[in-house]
Amino acid sequence: MRRSICFCEPNYALAGNEGNWKFVFTTASLLSKGAHLRFDFGSTGRPVDWQIPSTNLKNKGNIIWAELPNEKTITPTVVQSPEANSTSFEFTLPIELKSGDTIAFHLQDSAAQKMVQRRRPFHLHIDPKGKGEYKESETFFLDVRGNTLHNLRIIAPSLVSRNKRFDVIVRFEDVYGNLTSNAPEGTLIDLSYQHLRENLSWKLFIPETGFIALPNLYFNEPGIYRIQLKNLTNHEQFYSPPIKCLPEGAVSLYWGALHGESERLDSQENVESFLRHMRDDKALQFFATSSFDSEEETSNDIWKGIVQQVAEFNEDDRFVALLGFQWEGEPKEEGMRQFVFLKDGKPIMRRKDTKTNSLKKIYKTNNPKEMIAIPTFTMGKSTCYDFQDFNNEFEKVVEIYNAWGSSECSAKEGNLRPIQGGKQAIGEAVEGSIQQALNRGCRFGFVAGGYDDRGPYSQLFDTDQSQYTPGLTAILAKEHSRASLFEALQNRSCYATTGERIILGVHIAGFGMGSELDTKARPGLELNRHITGYCIGTRPIHEAMLIRNGKIYRSLDAKGDTVEFEIDDSDLLPDIALEGKEGQNPFIYYYLRVIQEDGHTAWSSPIWVEISSRSIPTAGPKKIKKVSIK
């Protein structure tokens, strides 16, 4: 039986480039006059998608049209597909096409999509008699390749130990972040770093794969390092994020996201490609899925696929995949949660189900050792969580930031990335302030979320809602495994950034982020708290502040992109302590906030000091006065 023929000329495109393409279709069967040919473009109009063309041939560029066997041209009508949220173009044949006849669809001066894709499909749906019955489909395939070399991205660990070997990945990327080998022939890359060892002299070629692994690097001395790559053709230099080498390290630093979506790939449509994108392209070391609980958005079949892919992608010492989902409850009382499971195969808990329609029911039927509940977007007016029913067993960490804003404090109090917008946008609700919750005695670490366009966020693109960079979460853990990272989250051994891999450390009496200290075990803390810390930025640091009880306690001196400090807080603890909830001892808390010159910010998780024995008379409880943070 004769088959139809489909091919493209040319059969490839460079990501983001404008060009002309011809999609040639030779029919194997008779197509009557009036038959419909629907060219499915597969583009939803996002900035990363293939540019949607016009049907007006009077336009100078970005147009679509078809050429018949008699060399006459026809233009299509635009058809919107509500199910796929994509645009199609329907051509109506003015003549009959016999078996073996050819029609060519032309894209002229159109911009290709900005992400690479092998065998990118363009579908042609055929209604041979023009009666609205699309019984046949054909597919054109076109490779989208990386554009010219623009950037060398170096993926390296943030914390290493002296003389301990580690691997580095170098990604050769185009301007859109795609892997590419599109560079002048013979291009060489020179590798070096500060405190260069004399025996290290590497010259790198650009491989066809677009990336290369550099094994067994190590540093002889403690310090701060940046790996440097120099393009010997144009003399451009590229640097890795900072690497801190410690004399010896009990923990390592892992970067990832516990809540987020991608602007390029839909996590619902293809979970496998999405997780691979997060692991390989985004170079994340851990990631939790975050579909919403509604069956309309996450059907049982979709959830089954997510569960399967998370289990397959989870791999110790490479990539920790965590099963999670989002649950939206009543504003203020419950707010929005990102649930993250320790184990695989867990069912999704839907709010419409009577057994899981409230947080109290969910917490009652689950084990806090196997599930974490993360309050997210707590200062969003429609998603607000007022922390009145804060659950210390499950809510070990709180999302201080995501791409739609920070919930640290209000804009009036100095929030540089506030939740704000116009009349149709989501405004801020001060009841969800993280600082207010900390002042009332809630204890939790900080994590950051990424970009999200689902659930309550889905309508924000049609408003003037302020949008920022996707955040990152850093976890300090003993091992790169799911169990170790989960344990670190439960210990609040983590911190948040607005997307840059800023290195933070803060300790009180040798205890790190998330720690709870008390004066019963360490009575000297009533008189003095010895606080040490550091920050190494990816850019020069504009401002670094040690926050105590929600106020700026000390502004820290920065030298370029580095801050190191030792502080003795000698204020008598009873004089500055906050009165917590009923049954809770007076306490104080500290955390570090750092702002780079480019605006990127990092927040360490707090450290608490509690008065559990009163050897010194205490002053009366003090009310917290709001102070603007600048």
3D structure, described in words:
The protein is mainly beta and 630 residues long. The protein folds into 4 domains: 5-145, Immunoglobulin-like (Sandwich); 151-250, Immunoglobulin-like (Sandwich), CATH 2.60.40.2950; 259-499, Alpha-Beta Barrel (TIM Barrel); 514-613, Immunoglobulin-like (Sandwich). 8% of the residues lie in helices and 37% in strands. The strands form 9 sheets. Strands 22, 23, 25, 32, 33, 35, 37, 38, 40, 41 and 42 form an 11-stranded mixed β-sheet that branches. The chain has a 6-stranded mixed β-sheet with strand order 2-11-10-4-8-7, with no helix packed on it. The chain starts with a strand and ends in a 20-residue tail after the last strand. Mean pLDDT is 92; it is low at 615-630.
The value of Rg in angstroms is 28 Å
Shape descriptor reads globular
Q: Biggest sheet: strands, sense, closure?
A: 11 strands, mixed
Question: Which percent range describes the beta-strand content?
Answer: 35-45%
Number of helices: 6
Mean pLDDT: 92
CATH topology of the largest domain: TIM Barrel
Number of DSSP strands? 42
Low-pLDDT segments: 615-630
**Could you say how many structural domains there are in total?**
4
